[in-house]
Amino acid sequence: MLKVFVVAGARPNFMKIAPIVRVARNLNKVSCKIVHTGQHYDYDMSQSFFEDLELPEPDYYLNAGSGTHAQQTARIMMSFEDLCLQDRPSLIIVVGDVNSTLACAVVAKKLLIDVAHVEAGLRSFDLAMPEEINRMVTDAISDYFFVTEKSAVKNLIREGKNKTRIHYVGHVMIDNLLYQLKRMQVDNGSDYSSKEIKRSNPGYAFLTLHRPANVDKRDSFQEIAEAINVIAGERPILFPVHPRTRNKMAEHEISLAKTVIQLPPLSFRESLYLWKDATVVMTDSGGLQEESTALRVPCMTLRENTERPITVEVGSNTLAGTKKESILAAYKRVLLRNPKTFRIPPKWDGKSAERIWSVLLQGAEYS
Ligand code: UD1
Description:
- With 367 residues, this protein is α/β, with parallel strands linked by helices.
- It contains 16 helices and 13 strands.
- The longest helix has 18 residues, at 69-86.
- The protein is globular and about 60 Å long.
- Bound molecules: uridine-diphosphate-N-acetylglucosamine.
- Uridine-diphosphate-N-acetylglucosamine (UD1) binds at residues 10-12, 39-42, 45, 66, 98-99, 130-131, 210, 242-244, 247.
């Protein structure tokens, strides 16, 4: 039996573990337990995702909570080490690039437990981004690299990784997206609180914003807000507000136009229900760049760089930068694009989790 811990801590992790856990349920040679580090803990940042994504309750909840990077990472490491000493897995699966990813990978590796990194090899080459450090450290010590796009293969090879450890499997987040989309075709969002908002704001744009580089400092946030307010003069903008952003908006006294409709953080399905039909998605999230690519929805990334260059290459994503003028120029360009010309990256087909388990079951030594 291959005993595996699947680790998740923050909102973008939950979408990625859902298909991995779903496929594992049908494998009789695998015991798969979910470890939730508690990095995100509010109902609408965590529990609502477990419900929407049909994830079972976590087997272990580590209760890490918020804090500085060092505090949060250290708390996760200490509790995860205790857990691994009590109930030792043969392998852990970590996903993405959040603090929980790095913390649990380091702990496992030092206990000589194998580490599989899902969404390995992505690089923004921007060390001011905490996620870039998390990605680099996790990849430095992982045993299995499951990659989503060809740039990641290149990056890992350049960093000296053994080719036989790199597996281009596609994207588990897209597995989840396609699965959820199918479910949504049945209920068509009939019970969503945002149904009326969607109906009464035709042509809307959908905005998410939470990167520290964009919202933590007043000047950067204000610059982006000015561009958003100009765009909001042309079309309504639906904006689910991340807790970090909500706090910073109040602290910096940022004011947004009335046609920027502020919403609480949305559940996975309610968010999908809104962005899938948006005229344009504006975001600084990594995941939404990829999800919008998979559904051919035009996306503007409010950042100077992306660790997901395939989304730009296939035509759906435009790097808009973070200055008012660059954002407005990108907005004009994006509206001229024809989504029919956007391509879907290879293997973003809903079968990535199956590919991952097939590699792990071949490679593992288990009895
Ligand atoms: C984290 C990830 C980021 C990911 C994002 C998605 C790292 C370094 N960052 O950033 O990569 O894109 O999650 O949301 O791991 N808060 C709440 N309730 C919660 C969680 C957070 O109110 O359930 C507030 C707290 O004030 C906290 C702040 O949000 O201090 C930031 O949370 P944190 O997990 O530190 O970072 P995120 O910005 O969410």
